[in-house]
Design a protein that fits this description.
The protein has about 375 residues and is of the alpha/beta class. It has 2 domains: about 60 residues, Nicotinate-nucleotide-dimethylbenzimidazole phosphoribosyltransferase (CobT), small domain (5,6-Dimethylbenzimidazole Phosphoribosyltransferase, Chain: A, domain 1, Orthogonal Bundle); about 270 residues, Rossmann fold (3-Layer(aba) Sandwich), CATH 3.40.50. It is about 45% helix and about 10% strand. The longest helix is centred in the middle third of the chain and has 20 residues. The radius of gyration is 21 Å and the shape is globular. The chain binds alpha-ribazole-5'-phosphate and nicotinic acid (NIO). Nicotinic acid binds next to helix 10.
């Protein structure tokens, strides 16, 4: 067991939940008519602990690292692509660059542990590698417990850096060839789901490739049957970028930031974070349902309803960036929409004691199971 005291996510204020619901219901619209945007607005208010949440300086942290398991042929692409994509991020040519630019999201690339030397100085690159890639977890633990803790601390530090610059919304993206294999093993062990149901095509394996990947991952899980505790599972099967995402989530929730959760790998990191410090989940907005096999089931495990379903299977934080404008709209609705009283508009008949009196708002369902239920 780890002796580290992980940052705790503050509890939500039940009285504020009621006031947020009233504020939303008093807006000039039929109750519930903004659908899930209303639940999202309420969750954002609870996260920021105010009726007027400030979502400022959204930041996307893209963590990159290599994986020893890549050498067993579990990805369609070779490990060198991780480093090549880091250079692509720094040149501004990747999908996440395009979407971050489009939506005014600050982008930072973190070398969490790629193979080889990154010989460049770039203000958007943070060089904090734990090691030159993980070990092949078919044969040995991917990393030591100390390395897992070091990586988690690295992710926490990046969020502290952005918090000091005023950021209240954080997204995590990742780049690491073979990291769907890590994510599948984390899911299988932490959610107790057979590995076949957690193993997908990743970058585009064919059926034979997926079968090979499943066989490798089944052997890897069998190698370490006793690893059950979240930090131990992370050390056995994780990656340095995944561990840094864990730290980023922990720190962001403790600081009452809105967390934009991306796809399969980003969600697998959240499994670890939530297991280490229960309550992080309430701070999470699930951006999309990835096309990667296993993600739908992982979302169900969280009780999450993602905002988008676009058949994305990319990672990098791309889905989180695409969902940001919706999150922004939910906060703007709460902050800027007039109330019936402001606008001098008559309220509905239920105000006069009609049959519809009682709880208004209709859709009180939240983005995640343990989220903002009043
Ligand atoms: C050019 C390229 C850009 C990417 N951007 C994200 N990924 C995604 O694919 C990888 C995971 O899939 P697997 O486990 O099959 O290797 C991760 O790096 C992930 O972020 C990419 C993959 C490639 C090839
Ligand atoms: O959903 C994801 O994050 C994902 C899926 C496939 C490949 N890379 C990332």
């Amino acid at each position: 067991m780890s002796t580290v005291a992980w940052p705790a996510a503050p509890a939500f204020d039940d009285a504020l939940a009621t006031r947020l619901q009233q504020a939303i219901d008093f807006k000039t619209k039929p109750p519930g008519s903004l659908g899930r945007l209303e639940a999202l607005a309420r969750q954002i208010g609870l996260i920021r602990n105010t009726l007027t949440p400030d979502l400022v300086r959204p930041a996307m942290l893209v963590f990159a690292a290599d994986h020893g398991i890549a050498d067993t042929g579990v990805s369609r692409f070779p490990a060198e692509v991780t480093m090549q994509m880091v250079y692509n991020f720094l040149r501004g040519g990747a999908a996440i660059n395009v979407f971050a630019r489009q939506h005014g999201i600050q982008l930072e690339v973190i070398n969490s542990g790629v193979r080889g030397v990154l010989d460049c100085v770039d203000e958007r690159l943070v060089n904090i590698p734990v090691a030159a890639g993980t070990r092949n977890f078919l044969e040995a633990p991917a990393m030591t417990l100390a390395q897992a803790e070091q990586a988690i601390a690295g992710g926490m530090a990046r969020v502290r850096h952005h918090a000091a610059l005023g950021t209240t919304v954080i997204g995590c993206g990742e780049m690491g060839i073979a990291n769907t294999s890590s994510a599948a093993c984390l899911m299988s062990r932490l959610c107790d789901v057979p590995i076949d149901a957690c193993t997908g095509r990743g970058t585009g394996l064919d059926d034979a490739g997926v079968q090979h990947k499943q066989a490798i991952l089944a052997r890897a899980l069998a190698r370490a049957p006793r690893a059950r505790e979240p930090l131990a599972v992370l050390a056995e099967f994780g990656g340095f970028e995944i561990a840094m995402m864990v730290g980023a989530y922990l720190e962001a929730a403790a600081r009452r930031m809105v967390i934009l959760v991306d796809g399969f790998i980003a969600s697998a990191a959240l499994l670890v974070a939530e297991a280490l410090s229960p309550g992080v989940l309430r701070y999470c907005v699930f951006s999309h349902c990835s096309d990667e096999r296993g993600h739908r089931r992982m979302l169900a495990h969280f009780g999450a309803m993602p905002l988008l379903a676009l058949d994305l299977r990319l990672g990098e934080g791309s889905g989180a960036a695409l969902a940001w404008p919706l999150v922004q709209s939910a906060a703007c609705m709460l902050n800027e929409m007039a109330t019936f009283a402001d606008a001098g508009i008559s309220t509905d008949h239920s105000e006069q004691g009609g049959e519809q009196s009682g709880e208004q708002g209709g859709n009180h369902q939240n983005n995640a199971r343990s989220g903002a239920q009043p």
